[in-house]
Amino acid sequence: MNHSIRDFVAQLPIVDVHEHHLPEVIHQREVNLLQLFQQSYAGWALTRPYCLPSESRDADPMLAAAPETTWEALQPFLNQCGSNSFVRNLVHAIGELHGNGETEITQDNWQAIDQSARAAHRRQEWQQEILKRAGITTVITDAYNDPLLDARPALGANYHSVMRTNSLALGWHPDSRDHNGNSAHEILKRVGLSAGSFDKYLAALEKLMDGMAARSQVALKNALAYDRDVHFDEPNERLARATWGKSTPSGEERKAFGDFVVDHLCRLAAARDMPVQMHLGTGLIRGSHPLGVAGLIERHPRTRFLLMHLAYPWSRDLLGMAFVYRNIWLDLTWSFLLSPSHFKLALHEAIEILPDESRMMLGGDNWHVEETYGAMLAARRLIAEVLEEKVASRYFGRSTAERLARRILSENANKFFQLA
Ligand SMILES: [Zn+2]
Questions:
Q1: What is the whole-number distance in angstroms between the Cα of residue 278 and the centre of ligand 1?
Q2: Which of 95, 287, 389, 395 supports an S-S bond with 102, CB 3.0-4.6 Å?
Q3: If you write DSSP's letter for every residue of 111-152 in order, what string do you get?
Q4: CA atoms within 13 A of residue 109's CA, in its CB half-sphere
């Protein structure tokens, strides 16, 4: 073996377990450089696109059209937020894909880069070309604006999707909607289901899950950390039932209804061996600590939970949970974009504390393939660096390092989602 661990990791295929590749974004043929920044986490560095309880918004800023790129319009990203990790990742990826390897976007090169990005996105092949160049064989997308998306016809034969369940946990009234504007009652109507009572609603959710395989949906996705706190407590059925049909239930009633539905979905998921992917950390940060979901995980020992983002900034708490509860897997997605240096520290610990090698997998979490490309380059580099350090300190040998890398990048996801 004379290749480096870095070279070994660089050539491994990736099963990407989390993206926000949406048909209406991926298939746009007019995409300029400014839009790549706006529809990315670099955009989040500039403006948080989701509301805190004290705020409101009219439309999703991530899906707004971008005006023409100008040097002035790029300034907030490049100068004001230029040291942020999301911006660094995107600048590196764009420099490589549209700028002949330039490491910065400057007053001298931005117009050529803008031209290149616009020309690339006019070609339908661009999306799949970049996935291939990133070494991504399979993508699981979370189309939060369409929880019933059948991703194969919409995005490509190498896609699957997850079914967002936020609106279902908020479905006490036909007018109630999640933070992405989804209504449970409209979703049910789309597949010919309706719910005239609380019991019929629970039965309809079961039928909705039965339809997932036909839509190549491979997991439920709970992103309620953007709608409410993640303390999914022991369900209070009496209060949940009493909430049904109310247009303005109290906070206590909303929580009871959501707790009950989340519990119901976890039970249905266990019966179908369907994984539950869950956002933890950041979001509505006062209520997104991973220990908030500990009760739910204990009540559903046969449900397989894929907990996301290393619950940043509470990665150590999450790792402790993943040691105690053996129905937890870790989706490393986003954690290496949020903070590459924290990711390395956490990955060292994760390797040491996780009970077995099946527990970790990763994704990009992005809207455009440029950012996905950058995310995967970063993940490969950081994982290789950690494995090199582990081998250098004689924690384990080269063959264990390589086996673990193969598992994290593709094998664990294939098994977990029963893809191959
Ligand atoms: Zn995401």
A1: 10
A2: 95
A3: HHHHHHHHHHHHSTTHHHHHHHHTTEEEEEE--TT-TT--HH
A4: 16
Ligand 1 centre to CA of 399 (Å) is: 32
Task: Please tell me the distance between residue 246's alpha carbon and the centre of ligand 1 in angstroms.
Answer: 30
Query: How many A from CA of 365 to the centre of ligand 1?
Result: 5
Residues within 5 Å of ion ligand 1, judged at the Cβ atom? 365
DSSP symbol at 285: G
d(CA 220, ligand 1 centre) in Å? 13
Q: How far is the CA of 364 from the centre of ligand 1 (A)?
A: 8
Q: Please tell me the distance between residue 142's alpha carbon and the centre of ligand 1 in angstroms.
A: 7
C-alpha 143 to ligand 1 mean position (Å): 9
Strands 136-141, 159-164: pairing kind: parallel
Tell how far the Cα of 98 is from the centroid of ligand 1, in angstroms. Answer: 25
Q: What string of pLDDT tens digits covers the 420 residues of the chain? A: 568 999 999 999 999 999 999 999 999 999 999 999 999 999 989 888 888 888 888 777 777 888 999 999 999 999 999 999 999 999 999 999 999 999 999 999 999 999 999 999 999 999 999 999 999 999 999 999 999 999 999 999 999 999 999 999 999 999 999 999 999 999 999 999 999 999 999 999 999 999 999 999 999 999 999 999 999 999 999 999 999 999 999 999 999 999 999 999 999 999 999 999 999 999 999 999 999 999 999 999 999 999 999 999 999 999 999 999 999 999 999 999 999 999 999 999 999 999 999 999 999 999 999 999 999 999 999 999 999 999 999 999 999 999 999 999 999 999 999 997
Phi, psi of 222 (to 5 degrees): -105, 110
Three-class DSSP category at 213: helix
Contact 356, 322 (CB under 8 A): no
CA of 238 to the centre of ligand 1 (A): 33
pTM of the model: 0.97
Biggest CA–CA distance in the chain, Å, is 67
Question: What does the alpha-carbon distance between residue 198 and residue 243 come to, in Å, rounded to a whole number?
Answer: 9
**Which tokens belong to 207?**
């039928």
